[in-house]
Design a protein that fits this description.
- The chain is built from nine helices and ten strands.
- With 308 residues, the protein is of the alpha+beta class.
- It has a two-stranded parallel ribbon. The protein has a two-stranded antiparallel ribbon with strand order 2-3. Strands 4-5 form a two-stranded antiparallel sheet.
- The chain starts with a helix and ends in an 18-residue tail after the last helix.
- The mean pLDDT is 94.
Amino acid sequence: NNDILGYATSGGSGTDHNDNPTADSLDPSTYAGNDITNNDVFASVYSGMVQQLVASGAQGVLANIPSVTDIPFFTTVPHNPVPLDGATAALLNGAYADYNQAMLAFSTDQNPLGTPLISPEEAQRRMISFEASATNAVVILDEDLTDLTMVSPALVNLRQATAEDLLVLTSVSFIGSLADPSNPASANGLAVPLGDQWVLTPEEQEAVSTAITSYNQTIQSVAQANGLAFVDANALLTDLNANGLALADGSRVTSVFATGGGFSLDGVHPSPRGYAILANAFAAAINETYGSNLPGVNPLDFTGLYID
């Protein structure tokens, strides 16, 4: 879980060793802390660890990996959290006017190079526009856009975030802060784009999803091959995120940050009540597989974490 989580919480700034794998992709000693382990390497290491455990007759329970992009760390900060008045919006639009014009120019043959460098669709995606509103989208760097810096260093890979982008929870205190404390026009996320570590783009989310799917196939097949109990934590937390879980007193635990009660205030780890729900899933899987009678727990006996 932490393997993929480290990549995701760093905004996908690490390396996905499943994307165009090299020889180093098969050597975990070369990995950085926020890289995604190659799927084949994970399968080999994980199955080897389990085989060592069961070789001595040990029994146990394996759990798969939740969809990390469903946790509050990625679902709390909207892509468009910036309120602007008309004057500030006009000032920012003026600052990006040349950039916008260049994007349109380089999507046609009416540019100094005489041939389109980006599609009209990408040009529109890269348009920067603000308005007098409480919901302006932040400006981000996106490494998957066409690199135009060889034409001009000023034409960096900028665009505004959309609802498909996931801003990390910690960006809430960074957006709007000043990159240069002496320059009030250097607001991060507006005049200064957010770097890769602050946002998980759709392409990076796909890398996360692909790795989780592969890892989970490995985990479940290893559990089945060794006759071990199995907990589908992925399905459990997806359901918690989508529907919540009703408790005996009529309340409902959800994954909504600070009000749902299922997660801690770091937006990543379950609350004590959330862990109680997971514990019940583990107990049920063990009982089903081994004919045991482990008792469940009442999640209401454990703290849910809230901000009123």
